[in-house]
Amino acid sequence: MHVRKALVVGINDVSIMVARLLVSNGYDVSMIAGNEDEARLGRGIPAYVYVGDPRNEGFLRDAGIDESEVVMLFMDDAMNLEVARVAKSRGVPVIIALISNKEKYLDAFIELGVYAIPIVDAVLSKVAHYLRLPFKQLLYSDDKVQAYYVVISSESPYINQEVKDVARRCGAAIPLVIRGDEVVISNGELRIEAGDKLLLVGAADSVIKCVERIY
């Protein structure tokens, strides 16, 4: 039986909850703490805790980075980026980083192919959802393609319009809609509602114009 392995770098309240989630979904989880005080936070988690400098490639090998299908980063932005580069060079399929300074670091993580979660965007997304306010987040970008996560405000001109019609006018794909706790695959009759969260994917110019109009 194949056991999926995950490496969580940094131990804090958030990473502890993530580690528990991974364990409950069948992952064999290892965690890296920068010091003994941090390591003590990981007591009670069914994961092996390594203590050391995660920027050291030899230490990362000992912690199991080469066998890991997922590496999740919860240290400061600069260290997260260093570790992400090592993980990428060693062929880790999925790398996810929580980042504090979006303006300084987001582009670097995206260019590296890392799933970056800006803390401020996570908070703003929830606020926008509860208050039905507009919100957008760039998920992926290269020379040709962009992907955005957009929360539809109560003032959006596209409320009650069919998703397929909006996508056609925008020249972009809207493959799924998150409505409440449900992920809905777009179909011919699905209409946009205030508070919906849309995934927009397409040519960069078309997506940018669509995002500015739609949310």
Automatic annotation (TrEMBL):
Domain RCK N-terminal residue range list: 3-124
GO biological process: potassium ion transport
GO MF annotations, alphabetized: monoatomic cation transmembrane transporter activity
Alphabetized Gene3D superfamilies for the sequence: NAD(P)-binding Rossmann-like Domain, Regulator of K+ conductance, C-terminal domain
Highest taxon of the lineage: Archaea
Keywords, comma-separated and alphabetical: Ion transport, Transport
Domain RCK C-terminal per the UniProt entry, residue ranges: 133-215
PANTHER family xrefs: POTASSIUM CHANNEL PROTEIN 2-RELATED-RELATED, TRK SYSTEM POTASSIUM UPTAKE PROTEIN TRKA
Protein name: Trk system potassium uptake protein TrkA
